[in-house]
């Protein structure tokens, strides 16, 4: 268990308040209840020993690509690098504009306009090229709704368990309006690692970059991103950067930009 700092106490008070309000608040949850996964059971059994994660060395890029063309610190930038040691600034950032693209939703949640445009193009291509149908499982979550999701997860699975797969408020890509969790239609393996082996999961993993999306939490980069494998979570970064990552065979923003990542909150 982590030391209980002021922020955690606030979160715990909020969690207690949520329990009291559960009768009316449950319907506001952003995601359906999930079955405990084997990895979560393991997280219960023992608190992981923190391992320091060295800051990755920035990756060389092809000639003509400017790594500094956009900010990785500004939460409004489509290149923003947000993770456990790199919170959004301000912590309660909200995008100025959010839209609902004309797609299928599990949870009707909006996203940034440029994300919506790219997502529609990607879903259309998946249908045209491979006959696949997709849905938006979840998209934008506000600071307040991320607080509810995180506190609910922590109440059920403990802080260590929650920290493996749910970002703390102010540390979530969903709060930027640039991240979309995608599910298959008909639903199969939603929000589960086995989504990677569905036709939709395989097609997205191979093709999302063409539309400016990055499979943000790859299976072999848990120590870098700080999150378990999430084959359903796609982060919009724009076509030029996604293409650059693909060509450089780099799969994380942390490695590409040489910024801190890892599983520890600072
Ligand atoms: Zn997600």
Describe the secondary structure blueprint for this structure.
Layout (H helix, E strand, L loop, with lengths): L5 H15 L1 H4 L12 H8 L67 H18 L2 E6 L4 H23 L13 E7 L13 H9 L5 E3 L6 H4 L7 E4 L2 H10 L4 H5 L9
Antiparallel strand pairs: 1-2, 2-4, 3-4
Helix pairs in contact: 1-5, 3-5
The protein binds zinc ion.
The site of zinc ion has 4 residues, from β2.
Name some characteristics of this structure.
266 residues, alpha+beta, Muramoyl-pentapeptide Carboxypeptidase, domain 2, 9 helices, 8% strand, globular, disordered N terminus, binds zinc ion
Could you explain the architecture of this structure?
The chain is α+β, with helices and mostly antiparallel strands. The protein has a domain at 113-257: 2-Layer Sandwich (Muramoyl-pentapeptide Carboxypeptidase, domain 2). It contains nine helices and four strands, in the order ααααβαβαβαβαα. The chain has a four-stranded antiparallel beta sheet with strand order 1-2-4-3. Helix 1 (6-20) crosses helix 5 (143-165) and helix 3 packs across helix 5 (143-165). It is globular. The model is unreliable at 1-45 (pLDDT under 50). It binds zinc ion. Residues 174, 179, 181, 233 line the site of zinc ion. Zinc ion binds next to strand 2.
